[in-house]
Write a structure and sequence with these properties.
With 131 residues, the chain is an all-alpha fold. Helix 1 runs antiparallel to helix 2, helix 1 packs parallel to helix 3 and helix 2 packs antiparallel against helix 3. It is rod-shaped, with a radius of gyration of 22 Å.
Amino acid sequence: METSQRKWTWVVVALHSALALAVLAILHLGWGTSTGADDAVLILMLAVDFPVSIVLFLFAVAQIDAVPTYFNRVICTSLIIFLLGGLQWYWIARVGWRFFNAKHNPPACKQCGYNLTGNVSGVCPECGTVT
C-alpha cells in the first residue's frame, strides 16, 4: 500500500475519534439543547462509537507492512486510541449518571432544599423563595 494511503487511513481514524469526543464534550457540558430522548440516542450512538474506532484502527494496522520500524508507531497509536476510548466511556458514564440523577431526584428549593414536587405556584412554601 502506498504511503499516502496509509496516511489517509490514520487521518480517518483520528478524525472519527476527534468527532466522537467533540460530541461527547458538547453533550457532557450541556451545550446541546436536546431532550432526554435525543440525549439517550446520542449516548447509544457514542457507546457504539468506541468499538467502531477499534475496528478502524485494526484496519489501519492491517494496512501497515509488518516491518519493525512501524512497531513503535503502532504501539503509540494503540495507546492513544485506548486512552481516548477510555475517556469516551468516562464521559458516557458521567452523562448517564447526570440523567439518572435528574430523573430520580425530586425538584428541590435551591434555598432550603424543600421538596417541590407538585408545586405549581413557583414559590417555595417553606421559605418563600421564588423558584
